[in-house]
């Protein structure tokens, strides 16, 4: 068995075959790390991973950290504290994991903290017959495809990333429905960042809801962000993952966004998830 890396034709992501993620050689780890930086999202099919193997694999990419608020519940425990759950399954009426069955809008993970995660990984244990696809967007390409005048305009601008909503748009516990711009809990990051490993510039949007550009008036900020979101939805390269049981998908959270399609609430979807702590704060390009 030797490792093979096949980029998807979509302009983001690659399939990695010929490896058992539970038994990697140091050479394979290096090859996977390089492929992750080069292709931004990696998919490994047919993996058999318990929580130890999932956590140990993920730890090759940095220190693991807990998932966003609300991803761990009382009724379902994974075997490792670093492994959390994305699922619509309920036990005794209580969701065992995060994100439910609805659509999750485009976002990068936890950009509302000062050091957002470098990577996240999802490993599928149960999937619905249809729906629940996960989409990834190339944010290097989203930046490169901007008109030069827009690139110049973005220079030096920073954006507040809202901490109060989860990726499915729901209000997290402990937060209010409304805040003023100044009060809104979250983190401020440059709108264009330079990736520490690839050296490339990426558009850094986080998510649309409640985002605002610090240097602009509310009206100017909304106009600019709306324009950027229209641009990325229309022009950025995307790839969608149709899940099979045993797939592991790992993404570089600094240069991608992702979203998820909704799926039939009466079906079951169960993913175990890890997240790699940010190694540096997002730096202006
Ligand atoms: C996540 C996420 C999407 C999905 O785990 O960060 O956004 O497909 N998941 O479940
Ligand atoms: Mn996410």
Characterize the largest beta sheet: strand count, sense, and whether it forms a barrel.
8 strands, mixed
* Count of domain modules: 2
The span between the termini is 40 Å
- On the 0 to 100 scale, the average pLDDT is 95
**Which outline best applies?**
globular
At the fourth CATH level, what is the homologous superfamily of the largest domain?
Clavaminate synthase-like
Strands in their spatial order, largest beta sheet: 1-2-3-17-9-19-4-7
Radius of gyration over C-alpha positions, nearest whole angstrom: 18 Å
| CATH architecture name of the largest domain | 4-Layer Sandwich
Strand content: 25-35%
CATH class of the largest domain: Alpha Beta
Amount of helix: 10-25%
Order of helices and strands: EEHEHEEEEEEEHHEEEEEHEEEEE
Name the ligand types.
N-oxalylglycine, manganese (II) ion
Question: In DSSP terms, counting alpha (H) and pi (I) runs of 4 or more, how many helices?
Answer: 5
Topology:
Elements: E1 4-7, E2 14-17, H1 26-39, E3 41-44, H2 51-58, E4 84-87, E5 90-91, E6 94-95, E7 98-99, E8 104-107, E9 119-126, E10 134-138, H3 139-144, H4 148-154, E11 158-162, E12 186-190, E13 192-194, E14 201-203, E15 212-213, H5 218-235, E16 238-241, E17 248-252, E18 256-260, E19 270-276, E20 283-284
Parallel strand pairs: 2-3, 4-7
Antiparallel strand pairs: 1-2, 3-17, 4-19, 5-6, 8-18, 9-17, 9-19, 10-16, 10-18, 11-12, 11-15, 13-14, 13-20
The structure holds N-oxalylglycine (OGA) and manganese (II) ion.
Residues 86, 99, 104, 109, 120, 122, 134, 167, 258, 260, 271, 273 line the site of N-oxalylglycine.
């Amino acid at each position: 068995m030797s490792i093979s890396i096949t980029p998807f034709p979509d302009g983001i992501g690659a399939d990695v075959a010929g490896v058992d993620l539970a038994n990697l050689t140091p050479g394979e780890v290096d090859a996977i790390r390089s492929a992750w930086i080069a292709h931004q999202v990696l998919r490994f099919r047919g993996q058999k991973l318990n929580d130890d193997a999932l956590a140990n694999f993920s730890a090759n990419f940095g220190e693991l950290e807990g998932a966003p608020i609300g991803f761990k519940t009382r009724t379902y425990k994974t075997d490792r504290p670093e492994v959390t759950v994305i699922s619509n399954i309920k036990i005794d009426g209580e969701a065992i994991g995060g994100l439910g069955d609805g659509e999750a809008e485009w976002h990068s993970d936890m950009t509302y903290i000062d050091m957002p995660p470098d990577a996240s990984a999802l490993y599928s244990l149960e999937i619905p017959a249809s729906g629940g696809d996960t989409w990834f967007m190339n944010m290097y390409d989203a930046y490169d495809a901007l008109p030069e005048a827009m690139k110049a305009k973005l220079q030096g601008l920073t954006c507040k990333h809202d901490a109060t909503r989860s990726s499915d748009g729901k209000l997290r516990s402990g937060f209010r429905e409304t805040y003023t711009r100044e009060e809104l809990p979250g983190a401020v990051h440059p709108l264009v960042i330079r990736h520490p490993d690839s050296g490339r510039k990426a558009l850094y949007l986080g998510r649309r809801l409640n985002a605002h550009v610090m240097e602009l008036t509310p009206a100017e900020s909304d106009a600019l962000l709306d324009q950027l979101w229209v641009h990325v939805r229309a022009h950025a390269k995307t790839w969608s993952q149709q899940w099979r049981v045993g797939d592991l998908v790992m993404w570089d959270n600094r240069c991608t966004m992702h979203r998820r399609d909704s799926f039939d609430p009466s079906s079951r979807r169960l993913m175990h998830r890890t997240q790699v702590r940010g190694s540096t704060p997002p730096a202006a390009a």
